[in-house]
Amino acid sequence: MKKYFYILFLSCALFSCENEKATITNRFIRINGPNLITPDGEKFFIQGTCLGTWLNPEGYMLSIPGSFRKINDAFCEMVGPDFTAWWWREFIKNYVTREDIAYIKSTGMNTIRLPFHYKMFTFDSFMGSNSDQDGFEIIDQALDWCRDENLYVILDMHAAPGGNTGDAIDDGYFYPWLFESEESQALCCDIWKRIAERYANDTIVLGYDLLNEPLHLYYAHLNDKLEPFHIRCTKAIREVDNNHIVILSGAEWSKDFSIFTDWTFDEKIMYTPHLYWVDTIQSSIQHFVDFRDKVNLPMWMGETGANTDEWCAGWIRLLERNNISWTVWPYKKMPFSATMVYFPPPENWNLVQSFCRADRGNVTKIRDARPDQAVARKALTDILENMKFANCSKNEGYTEALGMKP
């Protein structure tokens, strides 16, 4: 009799465990053929924006050249490393705030793509921190803001170890060594596994965008290494997280999907192209539609926009007619055009721009180009204030063109 009750108890416990696991899984956005499905069983169509430059700085958003590494070098040469470290820490606090997230939600958007730099999870110096990075602290805060506003989040490794693109956007050394370096691949997979372990049960996270725009077209000889790395990284994530969708980019700036041969290795994957500045006609996306129909999995345009209001209106409608969801790039920057909100340059910002653009190939050239430090520091301090949401202007025509409410 005792044996019978023990078997019955064990069976009930296993059933309860499986039931709980199924209940947890059902709380996440899931895949059904080419569609995303909400926990309530409704179709979910991504409409959102990307928080570009916040956690992976790109100079053109501030009308200066270079990625984080180049900007940081220029600022250190111009105003010193201590002031520069302070400036980056304040930049993180000011560039995206709770108010920005609330505004994005108010427009009717439902998703945010959050680009980040891999160094946020290493011992490398990055954005004002010179010790063990705690990227989770920043991302946890962003997720809490999005949770309060009921906005889904896609985590995007914009800059990967070794370089994922071979261009300035990956903050590397202008070659995609990620695909030739076992050390970089192992680190990349380890970071994603740590991220997945932390957020495995977080339902506000929609998915993991493994690599931003891998493999510049100059490095097409490495294209056949992309899919195996995607598979390796996905398997690392699945060791700790079976709930979230893993998102795969095509080669050559996320445009070439001919490299993919296996779309059955995982049950929760979808694909993401990026596309700008094309004619708003069916032929411009037909190859994405054909690939989506072949694999019968969702297709999400992870980056687009950055064009006239008229172009964006036609382009977004084209994507939606073809069941391709979207997030526009970027949400915020200093120049006015093609962004949801923008902020003005401070007084004497032209001096900062001139120094960053100057030939600084030796110490004499650096000294000759350096502006008055007090003036430069004030301009840098003022731009921190300008970028706060309260001091930004809304680009209402652009947001309306996306079909949202400004």
Number of helices: 14
- The helix content is 40-55%
The overall average pLDDT, rounded, is 93
CATH architecture: Alpha-Beta Barrel
Strand content: 5-15%
The helix-and-strand class reads alpha/beta
What gross morphology would you assign?
globular
CATH superfamily (homologous) name: Glycosidases
The helix/strand series, from N terminus to C terminus, equals: HEEEEHHHEHEHEHEHEHEHEEEHHHEH
DSSP summary, beta strand count: 14
Q: Whole-number radius of gyration? A: 22 Å
- Kindly give the count of domains: 1
N- to C-terminal separation?
Answer: 69 Å
CATH topology: TIM Barrel
State the low-pLDDT regions, or none.
5-23
**The CATH C-level class name:** Alpha Beta
Note the topology.
Blueprint: H1 2-25, E1 30-32, E2 35-37, E3 43-44, E4 47-50, H2 68-79, H3 81-95, H4 98-106, E5 111-117, H5 135-149, E6 152-159, H6 182-199, E7 205-209, H7 226-238, E8 245-249, H8 251-254, E9 269-272, H9 286-295, E10 300-301, H10 309-321, E11 325-328, E12 332-333, E13 341-342, H11 349-357, H12 363-369, H13 373-386, E14 393-394, H14 396-401
Parallel strand pairs: 4-5, 4-11, 5-6, 6-7, 7-8, 8-9, 10-11, 12-13
Antiparallel strand pairs: 1-2, 2-3, 13-14
Helix pairs in contact: 2-3, 3-13, 4-5, 6-7
